[in-house]
Amino acid sequence: MRVSRRILMLAAGLALAFAVPFAVTLLLTGSVAAVSRPEAKKPELRVHHVVLPINSDDPTTMRALISTALNLPKYYRERNEPFEIEVVAYNAGVHMLRADTSPVKDLLRVVRGLTPEIRFVVCEATKLGMERAEGHPLVLLDNVDLVPNGPGRIIELQEAGWSYIRS
Q1: Are the CB atoms for 117 and 73 separated by under 8 Å?
Q2: C-alpha–C-alpha distance, residues 38 and 25, integer Å
Q3: Cα-flanking dihedrals φ and ψ of residue 50, to 5°?
Q4: Cα-based angle 73, 45, 48 (whole degrees, multiple of 5)
Q5: Is the pLDDT of residue 117 over 60?
Q6: Strand ranges of the sheet holding 144-147, from the earlier edge strand across to the other edge
Q7: Which residues 6+ apart lie within 8 Å of 144 measured at CB?
């Protein structure tokens, strides 16, 4: 079967009608633009969340917690990774953050100076119990927040994915 010259010319004309604009578009925009490729996303930096509990009035335990509170930020900063640290004081650990009984208040000033991002909190229930027992209001160190319940706060943070490190 022989194809007529007229049909060949018609087919060539249709091919050119589509091919020429397509080729011009590729030449003007670059061939990469014609192919849809997703852009490579930068990996999101995971924020490290750490809760450090203190429930002891032992100065050695307090110093161990302070050591951890200083070393963790150093570790994450060297890796250029974001972090959050919260120190939760309850029961006898509240003494660590009291202005009148803290055996480590000078060390805490160093921690504050080097790592002001660390949040220190005191169990309000423990604080109120100590105030009733001692008969006077407690004065906490500067920049210490209250939470209604220390162990409850730790549980909330753990349920939110925070890591628990005991000193």
Answers
A1: yes
A2: 21
A3: -130, 130
A4: 40
A5: yes
A6: 144-147, 119-123, 83-89, 48-54, 163-164
A7: 97, 120, 121, 122
- pLDDT of 14 > 80? The answer is no
Mean pLDDT of 133-152: 97
SS3 of the chain: helix, strand, coil, percent, to 5:
50, 15, 30
Q: Which two tokens mark 157? A: 């943070």
| Pairwise CA distance, residues 158 & 164, whole Å | 7
Nearest CA among 58, 60, 51 for reference residue 88? 51
Q: What average pLDDT score do residues 87-111 get?
A: 97
Q: What is the reported pTM?
A: 0.74
Q: Which residues of 14-32 are buried (b: 16+ CB within 10 A; e: fewer)?
A: eeeeeeeeeeeeeeeeeee
Give me the mean pLDDT over the 154-166 stretch: 96
Compute the average pLDDT of residues 132-157.
97
